[in-house]
Amino acid sequence: MKQESFSDMEYRCRKKKTKREEFLEIMDEIIPWEEWVSLVVPHYPTGKRGRPPIEIETMLRMYLLQCWFSLSDEGVEDAIYDSYAMRKFMGINFFEQDVPDATTLLHFRHLLEEKGIGKLFFDAINRRPGRFPRVSDNAIDWERYIENRKSAVRCKVEHPYRIVKNIFGFRKAVYRGLRKNLNRLHVLFASANLYMLARAGGSLCPA
Question: How confident is the model at residue 170 (pLDDT cuts 50, 70, 90)?
Fold first, then answer.
């Protein structure tokens, strides 16, 4: 169990969560972290030479924050230091570790782009079956059932393009070069599909 910081104790006493914190909690819950990390492992440095590499999940979380909030390498590093919600999503305790620097994120981002990892994330999610919660084995909560069905229809109508544009703020190409922007789009659309599933009250079925 991670050591609780003074900031954690202070923030637990708040009466209201920010929209950013609620969004990050949703994404933290719905993303298949083990599966996504496993897709990066074959391409990630082993640390046999030089300093030990930072954990893949830590770097992946930082990269996702960069994509979701349209931040530069330096910008997301500063934002994590400045935002409790982002630091909580990263799982970083400043008593034990610092935020990975912008250069480390740059190298990680280039790795994902060169190996097409974003498309692997997207392919692993696209049309993958989800599931909705059951009330009990012997009863049906018809109100919840109807709302889930309505949500499922809304998910099909509410195009992921709207989420990518209005929530993730992707309105124009961020990088030079097709490969870099394509990798970012694959990550954003995979995230949008997961976000819609979570909003509909569903969860991913095991791969």
Answer: confident
